[in-house]
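Comment thread on ticket #2218

A.B. wrote:
> Attaching the input chain for the structure job we discussed in standup.
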Amino acid sequence: MAEPTRETVYVDVDDEITTIIDKVHGVQAKIVALVLPKRATVLQSSVNMKLLKKAADSSRKRVVLISNESGLLPLASLVGMYVASSLQSKPEIPSISADQTDSEIEEIAADPEPLKPKKDFSPKTVADKTVGELADEEPLQPQTAAQKAKPELTPMAIPRPKDSDEETIALDDVGPDNEEIAQDSSVAEAATKPKKKDKKTKVPNFERFRFRLILMIVVIILLVVGFIFANSILPKATIDIATKMTGVSINPTLNLAPGNKKLDLSTLSVPATVQSTQKTDSGQVNTTGQQNNGSAATGTVTMTAQECAPNIGNPNDVPKGSGVVSNGLTYITQSNTSFTYAGVGGGNCVNFQANQSTPIIAQNGGSNYNVSNATFTVSGRSDVTATGSATGGSDNIVQIVTQTDINNATAKLTAPPTGPIKTALSNSLKQAGLYPIPATFNATTPTITQSANVGDQATTVTVTQSITYTMLGVSTNDMDSLITAQIDPKIQPSEQAITSTGLNNASFNIISNSGSTGAQVAMQLTASIGPKLNITSIKQQIAGKKTGDVESLINALPGVTGVTVHYSPFWVTSVPNSVNKITIQVQKSS
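C.D. wrote:
> Ran it. Output below, let me know if you need it in another format.
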């Protein structure tokens, strides 16, 4: 069976260009009639039309667009695509007017290699054939009145040379019957010929110009800011002045008074601040004491007494609350006991008996207090004896605190190392802007507390020790003022000045220390004395000068033995104009 030479493909309104190309590739026939729906926007794009044309050429197929959309004609003309208004109409490449200025037409026309129809066929043999006739198929039914009413595709006017002859373009040159379709080749060549761009009317890229302008402004600003920063902010100068130095020692006795608010140079009383911290330690042990909290035994005893010569008389009563003892266990009488004559005994003695039985109760609980027909002695009475019984005692053993337990817990207490405590107190004073005096470090007497007392019921007992540590700090300004007042009488203030008070190297010895209420200390230090230099005036004089000028100016001052100038950063070659950028350090000459 012969392969069909033409096939009709219907395009849906929502088909993408890739879908249409796939449909063209899937057709076996060499001539493909693409029936487009109304408002087929997918082929109203120059890119899509160009892609469809390239796909058709690459598969050696001739594609005819069946559509009345006027928007397709210029695009089809420029890519060389055949268009017919119906399946019975003659296909042709639309022509465009010379003054057409559509943007997408210009885009395709600017392509350096526009698509052109092939010309390897005879144009005259197919000039009057329809698409159906070219496919060698049965002619379709005649058009109805509604179909005839549809507008025919009218070629656009385009200037042509007068002597040009009409040519036809074959839609397929590989089929068995070598069918061809007629077309004017001059129209296709004129439509596909790229237009020359007018170089004189080229529109400048304003966005690129604006970007370059902004970039240039930013670069200029950065250069200006960098220049100012490098020449005004960064430059610094450090001037080391070596001078002839001498040392002056002082050894005053200071009264550090936490209650004072003002320095008193006459009494050397310096306001002080107390910095304190509390440290606690504890020791715990298990209790070893035991106590029977069971029920106490109760009972009665019968007392007898015997009085012998020469003290024969009625015995004294045994008062309530007296203790009677049996086998080392004590019972307490609950009533008063009196006696009556009971007859003569042997050895010049007279016997007496109690008027009634005396109730008793065990001093402590416990089953060991239960006795029967036991003999009792009366505490503090050698002339009275008793017999009786006690029952009802029960056991309930509990642990209690003993003094030994308290002592063992106390032995576990240890005093913390004082080194870290001194450092912590000193750092706290420094953070407060004060000058710490470590010699005033003091520890209070430990305060000891215990979690339970002797005899309390408890399984453990804890003993806690609390110690408060203190250190005094003073104002650096107060100390500088005091040192200056001590040194001034020993120098010539008009020519000499204190270059270093020596406070950082001072030593203190405690004379008396009462901790938080104050201390008396002996201070010893050596201050550095050098020539009197007006640092502010020197800065103003050397501002903006070169190294040689700075050295000459400062070396001329009395007492100066040398000058060294340092600049930073490395590109700085003169002293900054701002005195805030100048640092002057006065040092003792070697």
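A.B. wrote:
> Thanks. Noting for the ticket: Confidence is low (pLDDT under 50) at residues 101-127, 134-193.
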